[in-house]
Each structure stands twice: as C-alpha cells, then as structure tokens.
Write a structure and sequence with these properties.
single chain; alpha+beta; Nucleoside Triphosphate Pyrophosphohydrolase; two-stranded antiparallel sheet
C-alpha cells in the first residue's frame, strides 16, 4: 500500500502550567476510507487534516482546534513540539501516509467543549496522563515533548498496531 502523497495533519494540545487538555476521539483516524485500527475513543489533542484553504500548517492547526473544541487561537501562539511521519501497516514506500505536526498552546480564547468529533475535554495533571488509553506512539513521544524536547521522527506502525511500532528519531531541527 503506497500512498499517492502524504496527508498533512496537525494535533494541538492545550496546556497550562501543570495540566494538558485531552479529549476522546469519536471517530477513527482515517485517510479517505482507510482507517487506522484502534484510534477511536483514545485520549488525544485536537487536530485534523490540512484543507485547501489552509495557507500554512499553523492555519490547519487553528482551524481544526476551533472545529474540534470550540476554542479560538492565534497561529502565532502555537508552540511547535514535534513532526512525525507515520507509515501505516503495509506501507513499505518512502512516502508516509501522514506527516503530523504537533503543537502546544498556552493562550486561547473560550472553553474547550465536546463536539461531534471529540468527547468531553479533560485537563490532566502532567504526572497523571492516561498513556494506557492513548495511541501507542503517544506513550513514547508525549513524555519527551512535555519535557520540552523537540521531536522529529518516522513511525512505522505494525499490522497489529497495538504495541507494534518502529520509531526512527531524526537528528534534524523542527521547523514549522
């Protein structure tokens, strides 16, 4: 399964001094009709795929944040945290299925709320993040980005996905 081109997507985590806001996904992560197994009902940040009207990745992040949480933000307040190229099970090409840009956001307007895409938001203490109920790669990367380590990596997801991944971290600068 070789993708025609990589889908660009974003994830935004609302943060305070000692908490991060997560919500449960109400639908699977997907590209067209192809769904990523075990991606529904997980705790995650807010995000989605780039649309033609998005001028930049930051514009995608702010648009998706508003759509999925009701929160308004400025693209300039987004703090880049990671860029991860995801290769789904069966993809043996050099083209990832998704290029995902992860951001933190400490300044926003409004209160996050449940939407058709995401469940009720919850602010978790940074030492009580529910890794066991997140996508497996989050348990690997999230502690790093919470500790202000910028991450650039390729993730190859295995056929069974749960626990089945190979991570290759890159020694390149995170530029967004």
């Amino acid at each position: 399964m070789k993708p025609k081109e990589s889908v660009i997507a974003t994830v935004v985590y609302l943060i305070t001094e000692d908490t991060v806001c997560l919500a449960r996904k109400k639908q699977d992560i997907h590209i067209g009709k192809e769904k990523l197994k075990k991606s529904k009902h997980i705790w995650t940040g807010y995000g989605g795929k780039r649309e033609p009207e998005d001028v930049s990745v930051r514009d995608t992040a702010v648009r998706e944040l508003k759509q999925e949480s009701g929160v308004d933000a400025s693209p300039h307040n987004l703090i880049p945290a990671a860029k991860i190229r995801f290769f789904w099970p069966g993809n043996i090409s050099n083209t990832p299925n998704m290029d995902v840009y992860f951001f933190f956001l400490g300044t926003w307007t409004g209160k996050p709320k449940e939407t058709k895409e995401m469940g009720e938001p919850k602010f978790f203490k940074l030492d009580a993040i529910p890794y066991e109920d997140m996508i497996v790669n989050d348990s690997y990367f999230f502690p790093k980005i919470i500790a202000n380590e910028k991450v650039v990596a390729d993730v190859f997801l295995g056929d069974e996905y749960e626990g089945g991944m190979k991570v290759i971290e890159k020694k390149e600068e995170l530029i967004v």
